[in-house]
Each structure stands twice: as structure tokens, then as C-alpha cells.
Design brief:
Blueprint (H helix, E strand, L loop, with lengths): L1 H34 L64 E3 L3 E3 L1 H5 L3 E3 L31 E5 H9 L22 E6 L4 E5 L4 H6 L45
Antiparallel strand pairs: 1-2, 3-4, 4-5, 5-6
């Protein structure tokens, strides 16, 4: 009887640490905006914070400390450091026992394959989109966002995978389930919003699917599913029926590919 209680207490303590890290990242985001003419980071959302991904370093995930825009505002300024604020405490470096399976590197962890446990909101597959082109090339200013308290800034990568990215808890043909990781238990994940506040939610699949399956989609009502300026996002996500949309379809700017 004692061991389950201790395990739950550990999960709760680690969730508190995760909340604290995302709070720091939110503050770092505000500092970055003040130095960047109010624009959100124009890099892939998986490299806003963190360090070099040791299991997946050939591409963008090999970006080290100095190439990840929020790191300097968190006190990390030298390549080769480990950015612990960018890591969920239960995303253990080098873990091969309770880790996440990946297509290219086998059994690994988010910290090892992306250099961070968290994902910035630079593409429409993460709830909303802070980009004019639906990718990380042309970002909005924070002043463009109508409701900063409901616009996602950053979230745990597993929560993002589970809710939207992989077709609602999708299992790839190779058997990779990117939304299965549940470090805090009961699918609870913290979310950082554009205004800097952090809340914790039990992440279920999208609104339509959650209702159809008897799940609770109430957390979705706290999320702005437009790009913050009234346009729909999520347009390239593969789980269209699961995404809560409103507003009018977004038309890409002429300068967007």
C-alpha cells in the first residue's frame, strides 16, 4: 500500500517541477519578445529551448545551446551545457526502459531525440499557430494576439503528440506511439500561455473525438484555436475531426511558400 502512495507523491512532485520549468520558460519568452521587436521565435518549436539531441543530432535537433533562442534568458549561454529547465524531470537522459519509441533511433526519450521535453507553438499542429505562414518562418508579434491568456506558448511534447500531432493518439505503421508517454500520471500536463501563466490539464484527444468517446474535453475550452487574430489553424493537421476550430480560414500571405 505504501509503494503506490510514494509513486503518486513522486509524480506529483515532478509535475510541480515541470510547472516551474514552464513558468520560467514563459518568463524567458517575455524577455525574448522585448528584445525581438515583439516577434515570437522564428525557429522550429522543438528548438526554442534545450540542448543538443544526442540521439538525433543530424538535423535541426542537433542545435546546441546557443542556437536555441530562449536559452540565454534562462541562463544557458555555452554550447555543451545541459539545459535542465528544458527537460521534464521524468524525461530521463539516456533512459531505455520507460522511454518513447522513435522511428529513426529506436527506443529513446524526448530529451535525447529533440534536446528538450517541450514544444513551442510555431506550427498549426500545436493547438494554435503563432505563425503567419503556418510554420516557423514568419511569426506574429505578441501584440497581434487577441487573447494572450488562452493562446498556447509551450507545452510538454507528449501532450502535443497525444492531442493533435499524430492523428489523435496515432500509432505509426512501424508501431511508434508518440502519444503514449504519461510521466505525471493520469495524462496531466502543464501548459504555458502567451501571457506567461501556467495551468495543468488532463490532456484528452480533440473535442469532437472526446465527446464521441465519452471523454472530457473541458480543457479545450480554455484554448484559443485560432491563430490569435481570428483565423483558423490546424489546417495541415491530420486529425481534422478532432480539432476544435472557429473563426474564418486563414489565407497565407503572398510571401509564404
Amino acid at each position: 500500500m505504501l509503494l503506490p502512495a510514494l509513486s503518486q507523491a513522486k509524480q506529483k512532485a515532478m509535475l510541480i517541477v515541470c510547472v516551474g520549468s514552464l513558468k520560467q520558460i514563459g518568463i524567458a519568452g517575455g524577455l525574448y519578445l522585448s528584445d525581438s521587436d515583439d516577434y515570437f521565435p522564428s525557429t522550429h518549436g522543438a528548438i526554442w529551448v534545450g540542448d543538443r539531441a544526442v540521439d538525433n543530432s543530424a538535423g535541426i535537433f542537433g542545435t546546441d545551446i546557443t542556437g536555441r533562442p530562449l536559452n540565454t534568458y534562462l541562463g544557458y549561454n555555452a554550447d555543451g551545457e545541459q539545459c535542465e529547465v528544458g527537460r521534464c524531470p521524468l524525461d530521463v537522459r539516456g533512459d531505455r526502459t520507460i522511454a518513447v519509441p522513435w522511428l529513426d533511433v529506436g527506443i529513446s526519450t524526448f530529451i535525447n531525440t529533440h534536446g528538450t521535453s517541450y514544444q513551442g507553438n510555431s506550427s498549426p499542429r500545436l493547438f494554435t499557430c503563432l505563425s503567419k505562414c503556418w510554420d516557423d518562418r514568419a511569426m506574429y508579434r505578441s501584440g497581434d494576439i487577441r487573447n494572450p491568456s488562452t493562446m498556447v506558448f509551450m507545452i510538454n511534447k507528449a501532450a502535443r503528440m497525444r492531442a493533435f500531432e499524430a492523428c489523435v493518439y496515432h500509432i505509426w505503421p512501424e508501431g511508434v506511439d508518440e502519444g503514449a508517454w504519461d510521466p505525471h500520471g493520469n495524462l496531466k500536463f502543464p501548459v504555458t500561455f502567451v501571457d506567461g501563466h501556467v495551468t495543468t490539464h488532463k490532456i484528452t484527444v480533440g473535442k469532437g473525438v472526446a465527446i464521441a468517446s465519452g471523454g472530457d474535453p473541458s480543457w479545450l475550452y480554455e484554448i484559443d484555436f485560432t491563430n490569435g487574430v481570428g483565423h483558423q489553424t490546424g489546417l495541415d493537421a491530420c486529425a481534422a475531426d478532432a480539432i476544435f476550430r472557429y473563426g474564418v480560414p486563414q489565407i497565407k500571405a503572398d510571401y509564404c511558400p
